[in-house]
């Protein structure tokens, strides 16, 4: 038994070494300008606020949000931007280790099309010393919103669940797409919007991209719908870089 221990320790250390390092995930969401597509019309937008966003401070352990594009994805972004057929909408990136489970990460643009307050009870406790006392109860809905998850079992799998939303006017005078600032956002709608729409929630056109696929590192993965798509580049990062 004693003779087997050094071999066992060697196998364990080799396995740990093989799992060290991380994966860098880069995502570019783009619009296909040459194609029109039918959208789903919905009254209630899906919320992705249950997932951690990369700009939040309390990210999962060992997950690092990135802002810089790799040289490869920077070239892809510039080519999309100069194209007459496509328009890049969003870039996001992060690094996660190769062993832990990570929940889907929320990704979104900066255009808020709706804001709702959803307190868990009828009694709301507000922090009046805060700049936004009701921030913990507020859910923002973005024009481009969704989640991305890289999971590893026997193989790497990528889960994409993205939406592009456009507001549909429900009465004269309401623009097709409205950007709401924090000062404009009320409990459900701005007063002007609520009055013009007869107190009803505006409808939205929604384009969805929801796909689950096995991916390989070092190869750009293409996910698409007729209306928009996403390019995902997963690269292994050695432990020496960490």
Fold and architecture overview:
The chain is mainly β and 242 residues long. It has one domain (21-241). The protein is built from three helices and twelve strands, in the order H-E-E-E-H-E-E-E-E-E-E-H-E-E-E. The chain has helices at residues 4-19, 71-82, 191-196; strands at 22-32, 40-42, 64-66, 86-97, 105-108, 112-117, 138-142, 144-152, 156-167, 204-214, 220-224, 228-237. The strands form three sheets. A five-stranded antiparallel beta sheet has the order 3-4-1-12-11, covered by helices on one side. A five-stranded antiparallel beta sheet has the order 2-10-9-8-5, with no helix packed on it. A two-stranded antiparallel sheet has the order 6-7. The radius of gyration is 22 Å and the shape is globular. Mean pLDDT is 78; it is low at 4-18 and 172-199.
Main pleated sheet: 5 strands, antiparallel
Q: Distance between termini?
A: 37 Å
Strand content: 35-45%
Total strands: the figure is: 12
What is the assembly state of the chains in this entry?
Answer: single chain
Radius of gyration: 22 Å
Q: Spans with pLDDT under 50 lasting ≥5 residues?
A: 4-18, 172-199
Class of secondary structure makeup = mainly beta
Count of individual helical segments: 3
Instruction: Give average pLDDT, whole number.
Output: 78
- The largest sheet has its strands arranged as 3-4-1-12-11
Q: Give the overall silhouette.
A: globular
Structurally, the number of domains stands at 1
Portion of residues within helices: 10-25%
- Give the SSE order as H and E letters: HEEEHEEEEEEHEEE
Short overview:
This protein has 242 residues and is mostly beta strands.
């Amino acid at each position: 038994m004693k003779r087997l221990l050094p071999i066992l320790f060697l196998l364990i250390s080799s396995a740990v070494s093989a799992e060290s390092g991380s994966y860098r995930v880069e995502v570019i969401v783009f619009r296909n300008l040459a194609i029109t597509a039918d959208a789903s019309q919905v009254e209630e937008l899906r919320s992705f606020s249950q997932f951690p966003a990369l700009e939040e401070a309390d990210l999962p352990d060992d997950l690092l949000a990135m802002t810089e594009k790799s040289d490869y994805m920077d070239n892809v972004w510039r080519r999309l931007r100069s194209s007459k057929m496509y328009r890049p909408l969003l870039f996001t990136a992060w690094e996660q280790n190769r062993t832990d489970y990570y929940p889907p990460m929320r990704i979104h643009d900066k255009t808020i099309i709706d804001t709702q307050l959803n307190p868990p009870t009828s009694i709301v406790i507000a922090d009046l010393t805060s700049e936004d006392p009701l921030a913990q109860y507020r859910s923002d809905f973005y024009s481009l919103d969704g989640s991305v998850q890289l999971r590893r079992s026997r193989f790497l799998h990528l889960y994409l669940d993205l939406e592009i939303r456009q507001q549909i006017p429900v009465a004269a005078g309401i623009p097709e797409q409205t950007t709401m600032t924090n000062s404009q956002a009320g409990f459900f709608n701005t007063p002007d919007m609520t009055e013009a729409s007869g107190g009803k929630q505006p409808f939205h056109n929604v384009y969805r991209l929801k796909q689950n696929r096995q991916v390989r590192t070092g190869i750009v993965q293409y996910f698409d719908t007729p209306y928009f798509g996403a390019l995902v580049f997963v690269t292994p990062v050695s432990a020496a870089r960490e």
